[in-house]
Amino acid sequence: MELIGYLASILIGLSLGLIGGGGSILTVPVLVYLFQLDAVVATAYSLFIVGISSAIGSFKYFQLKLINLKTAVVFGIPSIAAVYFTRAVIVPAIPDEVFTLGSFVITKSILLMVIFAILMIAASYSMIKKSAPLNVELLNEKPKFNYPIILIEGAVVGTLTGLVGAGGGFLIIPALVILSKIPMKEAIGTSLLIIAAKSLIGFLGESSETPIDYPFLLSVSAFAIVGIFIGSALAKKIDGDKLKPAFGWFVLVMGVYIMIKELLF
User: Fold this and answer.
1) CB proximity list for 115: less than 8 A, separation 6 or greater
2) CA 28 → CA 22, 37, 114, 118, distances in Å?
3) I need a surface site. Which of 147, 153, 227, 230 has the fewest CB within 10 A?
4) Torsions phi, psi of 248, nearest 5?
5) Helices (H), 107-213
6) In a 3-state reduction of DSSP, which class is residue 98?
7) Is 107 helix (H, G, I), strand (E, B) or coil?
8) Are 15 and 188 in contact (CB under 8 A)?
9) Contact yes or no for 178/31 (Cβ under 8 A)
10) Each residue of 135-144: pLDDT tens digit?
């Protein structure tokens, strides 16, 4: 299972390099079901893996000047604060047994995995649906900042990232395009930078109750980074947008599987 886990880690980076996102949504299931980690530990490890992978992935966008630093700061500050607070305060405060339904006990791990499954199903919808045609007038507009909504959106995404360890690119990118009026490619690059910053800083806010296995964490991250380079090379020959719906269906099936596994078995 560990061998399959390392191969799946390459897939995490492959998705990021090929379609510009989505890989982080696979990280927690890989850690929980293939490496047999506890869900709470897996969400912490995912923050590090997602953060490092997104930082590497954002580098080419930075070289192409497709990162809007002002937007990254405006969206990133509440997001970073929320993810740090969530990992340092909220997650440790959740009891090991959240509540009981008859003889079925909803534990902390089950709760986090169910929230994660719901997030996967939501993410799959954004991947499967066809993108709306580009609005030429929108592309010609200068970036605008609806500060209150951007701050709220950043805080919400940061809280979700802190809970389940996923980057939340499928939430960030539409928000940047709609709320900040920036082009899609620039939104992807900016999103990767935001994800990298909030995930790595959120990891620093992790409770020290469980010792962190850094050799394991670095090895999984290394495989994910290899996947990024492979995906980036393939992206020159394959249209990632055509693969995104197929990946979305895969994420949907995974989300439903996790929901059934955690609640019924």
Assistant:
1) 160, 163, 164
2) 12, 9, 12, 13
3) 147
4) -60, -40
5) 108-128, 136-140, 147-164, 169-180, 184-204
6) strand
7) strand
8) no
9) no
10) 544 445 555 6
